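User: Batch of two.

Assistant: Item 1 of 2:
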Amino acid sequence: MTQFLRFQPLYQDRVWGGRVLETSLGRKLPATGKPVGESWEIVDRPEAQSVVQGGKYDGLAIRALIERHAADIMGPKWDASRAFPILVKWLDCRERLSLQVHPPASVAPELKGEPKTENWYIADCAEGANLIVGLRRGVTREEFEQAVKNLTLENCVHRFPVSKGDSILVHSGQIHAIDGGNLILEIQQNSDTTYRVYDWGRVGLDGKPRQMHVDESLKSIKWDDFEPEPVRGERKSAVIADANEFRIRRVPLAKGEKLRVAAGEQARILSVVDGAVRETLSSSADDTGATLTRGENVVLPYAGGFAFEATEDSLLLLTENFG
C-alpha cells in the first residue's frame, strides 16, 4: 500500500446548502435541484462508506480496504476492525446552520451518542460572514434556558467575523453554528451525533420544522466555555488545531516548493485548500506525476513515502496524530 488514496465524494442534501461546490471547487453535483450542503470526502461509517477512486484499489470501500491492508494504511498496530477515525467534509453554508452541540465523551454514553471534536477551515466566505462558537462571556445556564423559551438565544452566544483562511477548533460540548456565506473544510472525529437546540424558526426540505434536542443539548453544553478565538489565516507554516483526537498543520508552498512525507511514520490526510500540487516521489509509479487540485482530500498511507511539488502557489492542510 504505497499509493495515496482518493475517494469518491458523497453529496448530502441540506436545507441550508447551495451549489457553491460547483463554482468554487469545480465539482459536478447531482442534478436533483436540491441544495447540496455537504460533501463527505473521507468517511468510514456503517451508513456511509467512501469508495476509492482510481488506482489499484478503484471501487473498493474504505472499510474493506482497511480490513485487508490495515497495517500498510494505518500502521502495524492498527486493529483492522476499527473504523477510520476521521471524517472529512466540505460544507457549503449558503444559509445559517442550526445552533447545536455535540456531546462530550463524559455524557455521550448516557445520551446514546458519540462525541465529536471538529475543526473548521474557512476556504472562502462572503463579505461579513460570521461563525458562532461558545457562549457570550458571563452567560449562565439559567439565562440560556430562559432564552430557549423566549427564542432569544442569539443574545447568549459568541458570534464573530471570519475571513478566508481562518480556522477554529470546536470541541465536543461547545455550542456552535455556522452563519451563511461560508465554504468550510470540516475535519472531525468520526461521529454523526448532533443535538440541535435552536433552528432560527426554519423548516426542513419537507416543509416541516426540524427535530430539536433541547434536553440533550442542555446536558452536553460546557457552561464555562466563553468566547473562544479563531486562528487567523496567514501564509506561513503553523499548527492550526491540536486536540487529543487529531492535529492539523497548515503548509504553504510557493510554486516549485515541495512537501515531503516519509514512509513508516503514520497515516495522514492531505487537503489542498488552495492551488495545486503534483506527486513527484511516490513509492508507487501509479501516483508519480498525479496532480491534486483545490478541494481534494487524500489519505497518505503509513507505508507510503511521498513528495508533492506545488505547480502554483498553494496552501495545504496535513492532518495527523489520529491513530
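Item 2 of 2:
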Amino acid sequence: MMKPKVKSFLTEDVTKMKAMLRNLNLHTVCEEASCPNIGDCFGRKTATFMILGDRCTRKCSYCDVSHDRPLPPDPHEPENIAKAVKKLNLRYVVITSVNRDDLPDGGASHFASVVQTIRKEIPDCKIEVLIPDFLGDRRALETVAASKPDVINHNIETVPSLFPVVRHRGDYQRSLNVIRWIKEIDSGIISKSGIMVGLGETEEEILRVMEDLVENNCEVLTIGQYLRPSRNHYPVKKYYTEEEFKRLEEAGYRMGFREVFSGVLVRSSYHADEVYEKIK
C-alpha cells in the first residue's frame, strides 16, 4: 500500500484558528505533532489542546513534538483554554500534554486545574484528557481523575517488542497499569487507549496488545497508521490496507471493546466527540 494522501490544511479556517491560539498563548498537538488531520479538525473548529508547554522531556523516535528543557507551567493556561473553548463554542474538548518528567507529579495537578476551569466556565462541555504515564505514579492519576473528566485516554502506542526502540523512557507494563487504574479509581470515567501500526510489528503482536488492553479494563480503542514526520524519525515499515484495519476493528469488538475506531488516518483524538456519543 502506498503512503496515504491528505488534503492541504492551508485554509482560511486553519489560519484563523492558528491566530486565535497564538493570541491566547496556546498549543495544540494538531500542530506540534504534525497531525495529518489538522485541516479537517481545524475546519470543524475542534482541536486537541496541548498543555504544559511544547517541549517534551522524552524523545520518542516516532514523535514530532520538540524535545528540549521545558519551561515552567503557565499559570494562565487553564483560563486561556477555557476562553478558547468558549470562543469556539466547543461541546467536546480533548486536553493532552507533553511528558513533564521534570515535575513532581508529572503535571497531573495542572491537568486537573484545566479540567476544573473548563467545567466552571462551560459546564455542559464534555472533557477528554489524553495523559502521559506519569512515570507510573498512581497518585498523579488519582489527581486527574478527581477533577472528573468524562474520558481518560492513555495511548499504549505500540507493541512490547518495539517499546525500547520507539518509546523513550516508556514501559509497556507501566502503561497497562495506568489504563487499569482508570476504572479502579473511578468506574464512571471512560477508559481509552490507542495504538499505531506500521512500525514493524506483526498482526499477532497487535492482537496480543488488544487482548492486554481489554484485560486491563480499556473500553475504547483507536488504531491508526504511523506516518513518518520527517527523514529524521523512525521509518514506516508497512502501510496497512483499509481491509486490514477493518479486520483489526472486528477483532476488537469480538474481544469486548465497547468502541473501536480503526483506519489509516485515525488518531486517538480524531472525531473523539463522535466516538464518545456512541458509548455514553
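The mean pLDDT is 88.
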